[in-house]
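Intended use. Records like the one below are meant for learning the mapping from a protein sequence to its folded structure. Do not use them to infer anything beyond what is encoded.
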Amino acid sequence: MSEEKEKRKEKVEDAEELREVLGVVSKEVPALIKSIIGSVFSEEAGRDMGKAAAAFYKELKEAGMPEETAVRMTENYVSVFTSLGDVMKKAVSGEHKAKGEDIGEEISRKIKEKLAEKHREEKEEEE
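Structure written out for the chain above:
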């Protein structure tokens, strides 16, 4: 086999391997996110979040923070957790297309284009 054909074959194999990896990632990542959401919104996680918020508030008050400021800061502290949960829910539900999905689609499109191009070149050489 000529050196050029060997290089083409390696490129096609690399592209196919990348496609397989992306396929596995596209299946595993959503399951992982769902699992994380399940653990974040479990009864135990809720209790832990409540304890953490109470401890945060208590520390603010003991440090001499005014009541209104301590409450507002504690609300902001808790909102970080709920905002993170909302982002994860949207990512899993597909409400908003994540940039990672756009990139994955672009990579997939490029792989298909390269494979088609290599296939055409091989056919041309055979003729």
